[in-house]
Amino acid sequence: MKLNYPVHLKLAEEGGFVVSFPDVPEAHTQGDDEAEALLRAVDALETALSFYTDEGADLPRASDAGPDQRTVCPSAQACIALSIYQAMRDQGVRKSELARRLGWHMPQVDRLLNPNHATRLSHAEAALAALGQHALLAELLLQPRRRPLAEVLASTPDVGNDADFEREQGWRRGARIWLIPT
Description:
Blueprint: E1 5-6, E2 8-11, E3 17-20, E4 28-31, H1 34-55, E5 71-72, H2 76-91, H3 95-102, H4 106-112, H5 121-130, E6 133-139, H6 149-155, H7 162-170, E7 176-181
Antiparallel strand pairs: 1-5, 2-3, 3-4, 6-7
């Protein structure tokens, strides 16, 4: 499922930028500069998409971005939860049925569908496989930018093991997840 939503960036009269989403009319935010506005847009998008999941509605489909149009994607963890949610909706699978297919308890499925819960990738893969799909993280960073090595090293946290590194570096960025039927 494509979760990379195009945005409209407009200069605000009082200064800064206003961000809106043509495909998700509930999502609006603003920031003092373009970078801050786009960073806040991720949270606005995730919040607006949670309205759809809370009501049990289909997620809005992301349209293609224009030639010079910016896009915003939820965090990688939210993308995983939202992709599983929409796959369930598309197939008419309820949470209880997914729990039965996986041999899990309902709280485990609830955590899996919670975009704020750090779900193990193996659990997400198992859920997608139970739905006849699997996920490929096709793009980890939303829009990578080149930075000097010294800046990258200065911003890298001192982590002790691979799980910490994965949590700190990988799952806080937007990702595009492609669901491929098996």
